[in-house]
Design a protein that fits this description.
The chain has 235 residues and is of the alpha/beta class. Helices cover 26% and strands 26% of the residues. The chain has a single domain, classed as Metallo-beta-lactamase, Chain A (4-Layer Sandwich), CATH 3.60.15. A seven-stranded mixed sheet has the order 1-2-3-4-5-6-7. Strands 8-9-10-13-15 form a five-stranded mixed sheet, with no helix packed on it. The longest helix is centred in the last third of the chain and has 15 residues. It is globular. 39% of the residues are buried.
């Protein structure tokens, strides 16, 4: 997948993914088309702005921007400069840190969620220090989708950048579907609660498509079993 271009996700109507690099790692922006002039953006990268008219030609479109944890905010200011009326969302836990970064008027997702199709559900995993937010979409025809944040990574290979490659090896973030040591050591403040919740949610949703914040989209009928095994090994 080329960087800084929006792609429609296979078999998922109204779901677009764009990749950008920050600081040396592949990151994903997700755009959900709610209506002809209404979108929900998750972790939008600044460099994704130039290609935005390719899928959203209407300058007066309404945007809701979800910051999926307290660390995923780097591109938001650029999007607010273009769309000053965009509404910001994050979890209560993430808002504490995001407010210190200068963001105001953030709506807690525990109190209100963006306008989304009925097949979507906003999830706030417990035990996550960074205040992660996920989205789940259950659709009998198109299959179940998870949009997660930093809990999982799915890099095809090690980075070509020496520092990034070294970090990937130390933290076990590549290659393939991973839960890194960084998540285990620093992002989870209640591993047992998080593990219990994820395994239960897997049984309920049975996702066959995963869009992590970092790495490649994964589409696999065996994905629920693979994620469960990953959780059991790491936690």
């Amino acid at each position: 997948m080329k960087k800084n271009i929006w792609y429609p996700l296979d078999n998922m109507t109204g779901v677009y993914v764009g990749q950008y690099v920050v600081p040396s790692f592949i990151s994903n922006s997700i755009a959900l088309k709610v209506a002809e002039r209404e979108w929900v953006l998750i972790s939008p990268g600044a460099s994704m702005l130039h290609a935005w008219p390719d899928i959203c030609p209407h300058a007066d479109s309404r945007l809701s921007i979800v910051m999926p944890n307290s660390f995923h905010y780097m591109g938001v200011e650029a999007w607010l400069a273009r769309y000053p009326d965009a509404k910001l969302y994050a979890s209560k836990k993430a808002i504490k840190r995001l407010s210190k970064k200068g963001f105001t008027d953030i709506t807690p997702l525990e109190l209100e969620v963006p306008n989304l199709p009925d097949s979507f559900e906003v999830l706030v995993p417990p035990g996550h220090r960074g205040g992660d937010v996920w989205l789940s979409r259950r659709d009998a025809r198109q299959g179940a989708l998870w949009i997660t944040c930093d809990s999982f990574q799915n890099y095809e290979r090690y980075s070509n950048q020496p520092i990034a490659r070294t970090l990937q090896k130390i933290l076990d973030t590549a290659p393939g579907l991973k839960m890194s040591q960084f998540v285990k050591w620093l992002l989870l403040d209640d591993k047992r609660d998080f593990k219990r919740w994820v395994l239960a949610q897997l049984q309920q949703d049975k996702p066959t498509t995963l869009i992590p914040s970092h790495g490649e989209v994964e589409q696999d009928g065996e994905l629920p079993q693979r994620i469960a095994q990953l959780i059991d090994r790491r936690l």
